[in-house]
């Protein structure tokens, strides 16, 4: 029924689009194409279909994924990490159930037909500031790298992940000459006093003398041209200002309205080659963007969970219910070595017991296990294959674009068109060949061993090959049908609710159908799960989430301090982001950012409303429970106030102690 609803929406939308005044023919054609082709939608989560986490950058998605979704999911059902980053093209039968990536919604057409989607949204102003700060932080880290720095093979760095793959080099290039110039300014004898703000306190510091003071004497205050005021982290000589960045084309390309574009599947990272042109159409024609915003909204309403970053804990608690879990459900550890097809089933547990099993590691333990050397070789090879696939796809998209343009402006003769068609065909063949080679490499991965985090569950062991996989898939379906006797009923129930609603529009059924999610008992190959495998004893997913989120926050704060230390002037001032500094950003800059994010602002409001509605339903059904609170520690109050940046030593004496003739 929901499909009919969607087609109605699409037809209506197409009719509206036809009336969009001023839209060029090209925009019209792209709109028609989009509405016609991009119609696969998220399905409800039943417990036996894949859950895809559509990760919008800077929404606390990493914490959400690794501290909640992963910990709540049996390791044997998680997709290997490699799936996040390789942009594998066809995952219609991947034998795993929890997948997360920075891809946009265009990837959903390549996931299983019944894939369910969850996501987190954030106020676009916060998201934009966070992206600016993060890109600067990581770019600053690259300044400190030695010239011969080489990335570890098989390791995925932030710089490799979209959109950071563009933003970090962008900021690194911008700041390198500026930082060099600022650090080359010679310091006068006796240095200069600078104003410092740290953890909500202000004082003065002299780098040359290496002294900090609460107050300065008149003499000190006049030294070498006077005190240098606090460095504004959002507007200074070391890096492109927030204002300039907000107006830069790269921000429009990669960040503004990024959540809406990601939901629509038309980001800069889209699998659809015309996404860029289509985005340009949207910004040129407000009625068109209003129309597409409605498409995004109805899409989001179908998601199994929509949360918001500003209410991370409520979102996490609600997501658990939508996944058929509760805060008291089992918590599982286990790194990428334990994902789908690698262990945790009763069959494999028995085999594993016979080996000397000192080599298994948890998340933190790295990948020192057996087979790691060979795994690394395969990992590198897999990455190379995936890169070739990406390049082949780019070439195909370019060829298609050229052909469409040539057909559109009628300037080319038939021979030229024929040549372009030939290029498209050739590019398509190349892409298919590259995909096949990637699949082949994947299939060579042995099934039962740790392969440096790149083992993809699909391959049969040894020469088993496709037959083996097909057999296991059949077996899996059978077993699942048995184990999940209630699923079909549950799905039908959900469909009825939609029908009763009439429109298929308000798909808020997640909350009320949450009790129909059947927690799965088998892995992707049909092996019964060993439910005690990697289970964290005496704990539950709620407790583990709260702990893991606190740890993640601490880790990233200390890393940020170290990274930003590279961004300083020769007089010792440095870029330090903090809540206090954010409050000083001029209103007009905030307004400017807001004005570029009208779609995301509305989408975020919808996210908040959906979260409220679902929590209300979940509470009414007695399923929602607040997450536990961490016991307060002495650090935590300070942590809340804490800014980021290198730490300067505070003045020795108490504030306001008698320091002679004081000023200010
Ligand atoms: C993905 O693979 C399946 C099965 O091999 C095939 O039926 C389907 O058409 C493929 N989808 C895409 C988008 O290539
Ligand atoms: C500056 O002084 C502090 C103690 O007040 C000391 O810990 C630090 O090492 C000194 N730094 C330099 C660069 O001398
Ligand atoms: C994505 O954005 C980057 C940075 O602006 C640009 O260089 C690249 O060409 C874009 N890619 C696509 C497919 O539009
Ligand atoms: C130092 O200056 C602050 C104002 O910035 C003032 O409140 C404080 O009393 C001063 N301390 C002393 C010892 O004069």
TrEMBL record:
<feature type="region of interest" description="Disordered">
    <location>
        <begin position="625"/>
        <end position="664"/>
    </location>
</feature>
<feature type="compositionally biased region" description="Gly residues">
    <location>
        <begin position="366"/>
        <end position="376"/>
    </location>
</feature>
<keyword id="KW-1133">Transmembrane helix</keyword>
<keyword id="KW-0472">Membrane</keyword>
<protein>
    <recommendedName>
        <fullName>Sulfotransferase</fullName>
    </recommendedName>
</protein>
<keyword id="KW-0732">Signal</keyword>
<dbReference type="InterPro" id="IPR027417">
    <property type="entry name" value="P-loop_NTPase"/>
</dbReference>
<feature type="signal peptide">
    <location>
        <begin position="1"/>
        <end position="22"/>
    </location>
</feature>
<feature type="region of interest" description="Disordered">
    <location>
        <begin position="448"/>
        <end position="469"/>
    </location>
</feature>
<keyword id="KW-0812">Transmembrane</keyword>
<feature type="compositionally biased region" description="Basic and acidic residues">
    <location>
        <begin position="652"/>
        <end position="664"/>
    </location>
</feature>
<keyword id="KW-0325">Glycoprotein</keyword>
<dbReference type="InterPro" id="IPR010635">
    <property type="entry name" value="Heparan_SO4-6-sulfoTrfase"/>
</dbReference>
<feature type="region of interest" description="Disordered">
    <location>
        <begin position="332"/>
        <end position="376"/>
    </location>
</feature>
<feature type="coiled-coil region">
    <location>
        <begin position="382"/>
        <end position="444"/>
    </location>
</feature>
<feature type="compositionally biased region" description="Gly residues">
    <location>
        <begin position="454"/>
        <end position="466"/>
    </location>
</feature>
<dbReference type="GO" id="GO:0016020">
    <property type="term" value="C:membrane"/>
</dbReference>
<dbReference type="GO" id="GO:0008146">
    <property type="term" value="F:sulfotransferase activity"/>
</dbReference>
<keyword id="KW-0175">Coiled coil</keyword>
<keyword id="KW-0808">Transferase</keyword>
